[in-house]
Design goal:
Elements (H helix, E strand, L loop, with lengths): L3 E2 L5 H6 L3 E2 L2 E2 L23 E4 L3 E3 L3 E6 L10 E6 L7 E9 L6 E9 L5 E10 L2 E10 L3 E11 L9 E8 L2 E6 L12 E4 L7 E6 L2 E13 L8 E2 L10 E8 L2 E7 L5 E6 L6 E7 L11 E9 L2 E8 L2 E7 L7 E2 L5 E2 L1 E8 L5 E7 L5 E6 L13 E4 L13 E9 L2 E8 L8 E7 L7 E2 L16 E7 L6 E7 L10 E10 L7 E4 L7 E2 L4
Antiparallel strand pairs: 1-17, 2-3, 4-7, 5-6, 6-17, 7-16, 8-13, 8-17, 9-10, 9-16, 10-11, 11-12, 13-14, 14-15, 18-40, 19-20, 20-21, 21-22, 23-24, 24-25, 25-26, 25-27, 28-29, 29-30, 30-31, 32-33, 33-34, 34-35, 36-37, 37-38, 38-39
Length: 525
């Protein structure tokens, strides 16, 4: 975490210097020999503000935003802010927000600038509503109404929604980071959002709300001192112009191998020494089982056991195994596939050496299934197949009812079934997880899913795999995103850090630091 020099400028102090009241200088105290002493005019706390919305009451301790929405569905945005020269340089701003209801959406307004020609302003807002945090670009007038452009949204874990929460925004050069500070237990927080702003002039800082009521206190602003960065950095996506999706990554003998939806028929394999720089090594598998429909070779994964490499492949909505003596192939398919009407296979080997296959199927009920493999690693142990998860949560059903792309992590004895939800062409395609104390469940969804979701820069992040940094000290997620925010194909491969964080419940939370479009340090080596 960056070292911060918190020069807490409590709002009351800001508003007392210079001493003004309704725009006028406070009169000086009369000479001692004046017959009657005159009390100084009270200082109006709002006098230091460049803009105060009609529903705001400014006090020496903070502010309240009154309810202005005519019903529970309408949102009437407004704000209040004052100028602070610290915003011209690197800064950290922190505020405590208490929401009046589950409909309230309120938080920190920053880089705001009042208009010289109309009653309005432009700026950015980091807010919270119920279990979600939002990043907005805000603009408009009080007469026609302020408008928000949602740049990013994320679900957060709030142990007590009746209590207020703390939000923080930091500026580091042109990079801004937004933190939800109330879900951390003994670890340095990761930002919910990280983004770049160029040519932003506003130096206003303050409050923002949606017309459903909120209270604000403990606003503090400080200069931010950052240690000089050293070492290499990368930016997503990492595959350049290569068409690739549904990445399955194997780390073997100091080299990363990525298998993905890429070749028209068969599968390419990509190699990298560091997860950032990738080389296409050509086909590692050709046509399988006589299935030759171009563009229907999807989502391969490879796992190594006892010097053999086992690929689980999805071909024309059939899944089956192919085996090789090298991670570069050639992978020779088994005599027949395992299942039809099935895709997205993933193999997990537990600490006791038992192997499990996870996959998506609609042979009966659509969902994610699991089963145990025999010791030959290519056949299923009878009687072990089980439906683990089907689409039920709202985020899994935005555009199509979908749960797919399973991948298992094990941490402190708990199994984390990570997966993607809703249709992959949706902007809202995202990653969530469920946990169990057994590899085949029962699995219980995490309350704050999804844990990786869209931003204004990257849409549709999902269908992922996990691996570690070259030195083994960091957990990384490898996933795909849409080509652009307006086009889905060809999809692009990204990488970001992940970690497990202790919680008060005793069950570690899986966090993902992404999707990032800003410069990030290379994986540790």
């Amino acid at each position: 975490m960056n070292k911060q020099k918190f020069l807490s400028l409590i709002l009351a102090l800001l508003m007392c210097a210079p001493m003004v009241s309704c725009g006028n200088t406070v009169p000086e105290t009369p000479p001692e020999d004046t017959a009657a002493e005159t009390e100084p005019a009270p200082v109006d706390p709002a006098a230091a503000y460049s803009y105060v919305g009609s529903n705001y009451t400014i006090t020496a301790d903070g502010a309240t935003a009154g309810k202005t929405s005519p019903d529970s569905f309408t949102e009437v945005y407004n704000g209040a802010f004052f100028e602070n020269e610290l915003l011209d340089d690197d800064f950290a701003a922190e505020i405590h927000v208490t929401l009046d209801s589950v409909k309230s959406n309120a938080g920190l307004l920053f880089r705001a600038e009042a208009s010289d020609s109309f009653d309005g302003f432009e700026g950015y807002a980091f807010t919270i509503r119920d279990k979600r945090v939002y990043l907005y670009h805000v603009s408009g007038t009080a007469q026609s109404g302020l408008k928000v452009n949602e740049l990013a949204c994320r679900v957060v874990e709030r142990p007590d929604r009746d209590e207020g929460c703390t939000l923080r925004v930091e500026r580091d050069g042109n990079t801004y980071r937004c933190y939800f500070c109330d879900d951390m237990t003994g670890v340095e927080p990761w930002p919910e959002f990280e983004f770049v702003l160029n040519d932003v002039r506003g130096t206003g800082i303050g409050y923002f709300d949606n017309g459903h009521g909120a209270a604000y206190d403990s606003l503090a602003i400080a200069a931010l001192e950052n240690p000089a960065e050293s070492g290499r950095t990368y930016k997503n996506p990492v595959f350049g112009q290569e068409q690739a999706a549904d990445p399955g990554v194997l780390f073997y003998d100091g080299m990363y191998y990525c298998y993905s939806t890429s070749a028209p028929i068969g599968y390419y394999v990509y190699t990298s020494p560091d997860l950032v720089n990738w080389t296409n090594q050509g086909l590692c598998a050709d046509m399988m089982w006589g299935l030759n429909r171009s563009g229907y070779y999807w989502a391969p994964e490879v796992i190594e056991k006892d010097g053999k490499f086992y690929m689980i492949a999805s071909v024309e909505e059939h899944i089956g195994f192919a085996v090789a003596d090298s991670p570069l192939g050639p992978f020779i398919p088994e005599s027949n596939w395992l299942y039809e009407k099935s895709i997205d296979g993933h193999v997990f080997i537990d600490d006791d050496g038992r192997a499990y296959l996870y996959y998506v199927s609609w042979q009966s009920t659509y969902g994610i299934y699991g089963c145990e493999l025999n010791e030959d690693m290519v056949s299923v142990k009878p009687g072990t197949t089980k439906l683990l998860l089907k689409p039920e949560d709202s985020w899994e059903c935005i555009e199509g009812n979908v749960t797919e792309g399973p991948f298992i992590l094990k941490n402190n004895g708990t199994y984390y079934l990570t997966y993607s939800g809703t249709g992959y062409t949706s902007d809202h395609y995202a990653v969530g997880y469920a946990t169990s104390d057994s590899p085949l469940g029962d699995y219980e969804r995490y309350d704050a899913n999804p844990v990786l979701s869209y931003t204004s820069k990257f849409h549709g992040p999902g269908h992922h795999s996990f691996t570690t940094s070259p030195d083994g000290s960091e957990l990384w997620i490898v996933y795909h995103v849409h080509k652009t925010t307006s086009e889905v194909h060809p999809r692009q491969i990204c990488i970001d850090r992940a970690r497990f964080v202790p919680t008060e419940s005793g069950s570690d939370r899986l966090e993902i630091y992404g999707p990032n479009h800003t410069s990030q340090p290379y994986p540790a080596s």
